[in-house]
Design a protein that fits this description.
alpha+beta, 30% strand, two-stranded antiparallel sheet, 1 helix
């Protein structure tokens, strides 16, 4: 799906909606995003961050080069590359 459904909690630190997965740190609540798809995914990530009081977005990964697995990176509020704003 495109991430229009609410987040499902798979494990204590693992969430998913549509193609998008979020893994949170047990130490500082920082998080990793896998396969962000479009603005809807970015909005869902922001909601998850707020609802679960997550820390900084530290890593964004893509499983493969289809737009529905990476296009949301352009919409992420916290995106950075090697300390530089994208």
């Amino acid at each position: 799906s495109n991430g229009s459904l609410p987040w499902s909690r798979v494990a204590e630190h693992l969430f998913y909606t549509g193609n998008t997965w979020v893994l949170t740190s047990s130490q500082n609540n920082a998080f990793l995003v896998v396969d962000p798809w479009g603005k809807r995914s970015a909005d869902q990530i922001a909601k998850l961050k707020q609802d679960h009081k997550l820390g900084a977005l530290e890593v964004v990964m893509f499983s493969h080069a289809h737009y529905d697995h990476y296009d949301g990176v352009y919409e992420l509020a916290d995106r950075r590359l090697s300390g530089l704003d994208l």
